[in-house]
Amino acid sequence: MVVRGEALLERLVPLDDAEYARELFGLFTDEGDHQGLLWSVLQVLETLPAPSFALALLTASPQLGRRSLDWTGTFFLRALRDPPTKQSLETVAMENPGLQRSQTRRTIATIQQRNPEDLLLFQPLLSVLA
After folding, report:
1. Structural domain harbouring 96
2. Residue 58 and residue 61: Cα distance in Å, rounded?
3. Lower CB count within 10 Å: N or C terminus of the chain?
């Protein structure tokens, strides 16, 4: 895991590639002692243009949610609180019928249950994914 992470981090600049971003999402897990590194990767992922970030997050979220619901929730909550990224999530979800919609909806619904104070924040995205 650490070797893979280091190899991916060597390629970080410039980051404008949704496919590569999906690989970076693959690093996130609750196992191990590398939370500081993952926060750095999260911050790098957030520098992606909003549409690329949205596509990568929506594509990666079913697998990411199985590995780490906490990290998945962190990504979605931060994205949904940023208006341009929130809009991109909704637009990308509408424009990409190939997304694993039902799995993504289940992942988001589980995050929503764990964060009831943010219930309304998730509704527009869940509606688009329906």
Report:
1. 2-129
2. 5
3. C
The token duo for 56 is 């990568």
DSSP string computed for 10-47: TT-SS---HHHHHHHHTT--SSSS-HHHHHHHHHHHTT
pLDDT digits (tens, 9 = 90+) for 78-120: 999 999 999 999 999 999 888 888 899 999 999 988 888 888 8
Instruction: Report d(CA 57, CA 76) in Å as an integer.
Output: 8
Q: Look at the chain and report how many structural domains it folds into.
A: 1
CB 125 within 8 A of CB 93: yes
The closest alpha carbon to 76, from 97, 100, 107, belongs to: 107
CA distances from 82 to 87, 102, 129 (A): 9, 24, 19
Predicted TM-score (pTM) of the model is 0.82
Residues 6+ apart with CB under 8 A from 106: 65
